[in-house]
Specification:
The protein is an alpha+beta fold. The protein has 5 helices and 11 strands; from the N terminus they run E-E-H-E-E-H-E-E-H-H-E-E-E-H-E-E.
Length: 181
């Protein structure tokens, strides 16, 4: 079992061989100082995991997360993450679903989105998709939809809207593709 230490909004894998193993198994985390290594052998620093990644891996039985030398339960890590990250429940639901479908899911904040999605992996390709998570119980304004489209168009990525809510387990995905006339 791989061990990670909780440091505010990140879980850090300090053991370099464990960091390489984890990165190799699905491009989890980012090595400190080298966010897109070409291969796991390029990882020579601790691996930084998001709370989404840490919880997902803990639920899969791959990772143990510690805070002040005490092992956190999955419920404790989930509660901690919900308190720290707005909309964590909705975001985690989509993160987990996309990961289970075989995609590499990273933060999309630099693109103005919730997630950037890779089909092959960071360092191998540019993320072809941006995902915005939308609570399906809330109304979506037309100007919001247009702004989302502008972000994906300007970054040359396809936009995916992920509609979900906390009352059921359904997630509906809508993809937008740009066409020149």
């Amino acid at each position: 079992m791989i061990k990670a230490s909780l440091l505010y909004s990140r879980a850090i894998v300090f053991d370099i061989s464990e960091a390489r193993e984890l990165y190799k198994s699905g491009f989890y985390g980012k090595p400190l100082g080298n966010p897109k290594p070409k291969s796991p052998e390029d990882i020579n620093t601790p691996l930084e995991l998001s709370l989404f990644e840490a919880l997902y891996l803990q639920r899969k039985g791959i990772l143990e997360v510690y805070s002040r030398n005490a092992k956190l339960t999955t419920e404790e890590l989930y509660k901690y993450s919900k308190e720290l990250i707005p909309r964590f429940e909705l975001l985690y639901r989509v993160y987990s679903d996309l990961r289970n479908k075989g995609y590499v899911v990273r933060s999309g904040i630099k693109y103005g989105a919730d997630f950037a999605i890779y089909t092959l992996g960071p360092g191998i390709e540019h993320a072809p998709y941006l995902v915005l998570v939308i609570d399906s119980t809330e109304k979506l304004k037309s100007n919001e939809l247009l702004s989302y489209g502008r972000v994906s168009h300007s970054t040359r990525k396809e936009l995916i809207l992920a509609f979900t809510n906390l009352k059921n387990d359904e997630i509906s995905y809508i993809i937008f593709k740009w066409h020149k006339l």
